[in-house]
Structure formats: structure tokens, C-alpha cells
Amino acid sequence: MQQPTSESHAAATASVRAVLDRLVEAWERHDAEAYGELFTEDATYITYVGTFYRGRRDIADSHRTLFAGFLKGTRLADEILDVRFYGPDVAVVNGRGDTYKGKHPAKLTKIQTYTLVRGQDGSWRIAAFQNTKRKPLMEAVSYRFAPGLVPAAER
User: Fold this and answer.
1) With b meaning 16 or more CB within 10 Å and e meaning fewer, what string describes 93-132?
2) Who contacts 13 (Cβ-Cβ below 8 Å, separation ≥6)?
3) What whole-number distance in Å separates Cα of residue 119 and Cα of residue 136?
4) Hey, is 24 helix, strand or coil?
5) pLDDT of residue 5
6) Domain assignment present for 133
7) Is 79 within a domain?
8) How confident is the model at residue 135 (pLDDT cuts 50, 70, 90)?
9) Is 1 within a domain?
10) Could you give the number of structural domains in the chain?
11) What is the average pLDDT value for the chain, to the nearest integer?
12) Half-sphere exposure of 9 toward its Cβ, with a 13 Å CA cutoff?
């Protein structure tokens, strides 16, 4: 599998991060169209409650409804944990995120995976998004009874 060169790796990483920065900015404006434009036409989007959306239009329309209702007045917190490339035109980003009103949350309660692809025009777009709500109590209980489940990063 061909990876970006070391020079282009930094540029590709910056471009991928810029897409996620624009995602946060679109959320801040509650701009469902701008939010949806950051996804491929056939993107998939899975919410933390398990709702599955397919396609840019479905993603934009659902966010228009969310911004007018459940998520009205919210902001989006996003922390990138890592960016990995699988060839020069595919990136997988793992991170943490959350929505909030008022003060930025100290702990982000969701784990997220973005798969981005670079199009013919050189721009990156999100092809798939998965959002999972963390359950810290369940993690703590499972770690207590099965210490081998503790991720290496937390040891």
C-alpha cells in the first residue's frame, strides 16, 4: 500500500485536519449545508444512538433538523487522537468529541472514527463517520474484572 511521502505526509495530515476544523466551524454556525458538503455524495454517518444516514443530502437534512431542535445552540468539541493513511488518498482519523452549550467539557464522552478520501480534484471529504458514546462505568467494571481489557495507551 502506497503511503504519502514524508513531505506530502505532513501536507496531507494538515489537509485532513482542516476538513475536521471546517466541520466544527460549520457546526458552530449551525450551517447544515456547509456541514454536509464536507462529506462525499455517498457517505455513511452513524450517530451515537445508532442511527444510520447514507449520503450527503441525508446528512445535511438530518443536521438541519438537529440544529433547529435537539442540538440548537450547541457547539462541537473535537480532539484528534491520530491520523493514519492507507495509501495516498485514504485517511482514518480517530478522535474524541462531544456537543455542548456554555463551557467546553473537560472530558469528551464520544469516540469517533472518520474515514476520509481524496477526490480527483485533490480535496479531502469524509466518506464514513462512526460515533460511539463512551460508558466509563462499564469500562471501569470490565477493567477491574478483566485487566487484560485495559488498552495499552491507558496502562
Assistant:
1) bebbbbbeeeeeeeebbbbbebbbbbeeeeebbbbbbbbe
2) 83, 91
3) 38
4) helix
5) 59
6) yes
7) yes
8) confident
9) no
10) 1
11) 92
12) 10
Structural domain boundaries enclosing 18: 6-154
pLDDT digits (tens, 9 = 90+) for 92-115: 999 999 999 999 999 999 999 999
Whole-number Å distance between alpha carbons of 101 and 76: 9
Grid coordinates representing 96 are 474524541
Domain of residue 149, CATH code: 3.10.450.50
Which amino acid appears at position 77 of this protein?
A: A
Q: Kindly indicate the confidence band of residue 61, based on its pLDDT and cuts at 50, 70 and 90.
A: very high
Question: pTM higher than 0.85, yes or no?
Answer: yes
The three cell numbers of residue 134 are 463512551
Please state, in angstroms and rounded to a whole number, the distance separating the CA atoms of residues 53 and 40. 12
Q: Which residue has the cell 495507551?
A: 153
For the segment 65-76, the average pLDDT, to the nearest whole number, is 95
In a domain, 23, yes or no: yes
CB-neighbour burial class of residue 48 (10 A; exposed 0-12, middle 13-18, buried 19+): middle
Element (H, E) at 85: strand 75-85
The label of the residue with cell 471501569 reads 140
User: What is residue 151's predicted lDDT score, i.e. its pLDDT?
Assistant: 79
Q: Is the pLDDT of residue 153 over 80?
A: no
